[in-house]
Write a structure and sequence with these properties.
single chain, alpha+beta, five-stranded antiparallel beta sheet, 10 strands, globular
């Protein structure tokens, strides 16, 4: 019997990706389950506390569904929803063991992710194909990655989800 191309999300795989995220300057690491040209993007994203995800949105061509789905498999994540001026309009706590374990955002929703526990593992789904030059539209009022201002912002955002 031929071997099927089954992809397993084992704890060993998640631990390996988490280790890469801990050693990454960005404190996060993706693991694609898809080829970049595929219509459906599906990937693991492991985030460590302190990672900065610059607020952004995804705007797709009219024939493409612009949703983005996040499912937390391990750890805890804060999702901050912003308006076009950068003002916070909603905060969502999503965790592997909480009341909310996943969230789907509609197309054009400005958002950022805040890792609230070490080795937070999320599965992300969105329609592709992935086009690096146009995948994200950043909110320009927020600092770029790697800056002191970005690090300070992450600390502030983490406090929004403190008990």
């Amino acid at each position: 019997m031929p071997s099927l191309p089954i992809k397993r999300l084992s704890q060993e795989l998640l631990d390996n990706i988490a280790q890469q995220a801990r050693h990454s300057p960005r404190l996060r690491q993706n693991y694609n389950l898809h080829d970049l040209s595929e219509k459906v993007q599906r990937f693991i994203n492991v985030l460590q506390p302190g990672t900065y995800v610059r607020p952004h949105r995804h705007c797709r061509a009219p024939e493409v569904n612009g949703f983005e789905l996040f499912l937390v498999c391990q750890g805890k994540l804060g999702i901050i929803i912003l308006d076009e001026g950068g003002q916070i309009i909603d905060k969502e706590l999503v965790s592997a063991n909480g009341a909310v374990r996943g969230i789907e955002l509609p197309e054009g929703t400005y958002h950022t992710l805040v890792a609230l526990a070490p080795d937070t593992v999320i599965v992300e789904l969105k329609e592709g194909p992935y086009e690096p030059g146009s995948d994200k539209e950043f909110l320009e009022v927020f600092p770029p990655e790697g800056t002191a201002a970005a690090r300070q912002l992450v600390e502030t955002w983490q406090e929004y989800f403190s008990p």
